[in-house]
Specification:
The protein is an alpha+beta fold and 239 residues long. The chain has one domain. Helices cover 30% and strands 20% of the residues. A four-stranded antiparallel β-sheet has the order 5-8-7-6, sandwiched between helices. Helix 1 packs across helix 4.
């Protein structure tokens, strides 16, 4: 009898540690399960993207995943799917763990959007950007089976700055970056097996090198992550 082949050792998509699990990209909590009854005919958890990950870059970041999900799912331009998912799943979780609310809705201020009452609040921008960068690195690994070695700048045209003398300037700049990215990514295909939940475009320029990832969550919330060799090398060790 022949010897059984050894199982190939996989390493984390972000560091040199051995992979202990598969990281969902974006996190699994973004995708409604069938039991939620959002749309009975759809399984939003089919054909999800996963990458090999160590415990540090998967299992220990569940709170950051919840934070990112909450910020994105409450966006006022999201689809009815997001609104149903928020009311049926996210609000139920908050009722069970009310201590989550102060962290998410710190210093909220009532505002009116399109004639409807809403809330504005501060977010932990570093925490948000780190989570989006994490997803961008995972998508790069998914496509190219290599680790991306530079930091990201995250642009968020759907996060508005409401206070400060430069608020209008900052918001207009974000909208301009959004339009420019559309032109830059025009020839790239729209990817994602569950586009009503998550879709993206990715562009790699090997000459610079540079990487641009544009993501749309729930057909409403857009964020753009850009990285190039002109930025700082990533502090995450590679293999």
């Amino acid at each position: 009898m022949g010897k059984k082949g050894k199982k190939e050792i996989q390493y984390c998509f972000r560091c040199a540690r051995r992979a202990t699990s598969r990281e969902h990209v974006p996190p699994l909590c973004f995708f409604p399960a069938k039991k939620e009854g959002i749309l009975a005919s759809n399984d939003y958890r089919s054909q999800l993207i996963t990458v090999p990950a160590c415990d540090i870059h998967n299992l220990t970041k569940s709170k950051d995943d919840e934070y990112l999900h909450f910020i994105i799912i409450i966006h006022f331009e999201n689809s009815p799917i997001a609104q149903k998912y928020f009311s049926r799943k996210v609000m139920r979780s908050i009722k069970r763990r009310p201590h989550l609310v102060p962290g998410f809705l710190k210093d909220n201020v009532p505002i009116v959007i399109n004639g409807q009452p809403s809330l504005s609040f501060y977010i932990d921008r570093e925490r948000f950007d780190n989570s989006i960068s994490h997803i961008s690195r995972a998508l790069y690994y998914h496509h190219y089976k290599k680790k991306w070695g530079y930091d990201f700048i995250v642009h968020t045209p759907d996060l508005f700055k409401l206070r400060g003398e430069d608020a209008d300037e900052v918001n207009l700049r974000m909208q301009k970056i959004d339009r420019l990215s559309d032109g830059y990514l025009l020839e790239e295909p729209i990817l994602g097996e569950n586009p009503s939940i998550f879709q993206y475009k990715i562009h790699l320029d090997n000459e610079i090198p540079s990487l641009t990832v544009k993501m749309v969550f729930y057909s409403g919330f857009t964020t753009i992550a850009h990285s190039s060799s002109s930025l700082s090398p990533s502090t995450v060790e590679s293999r």
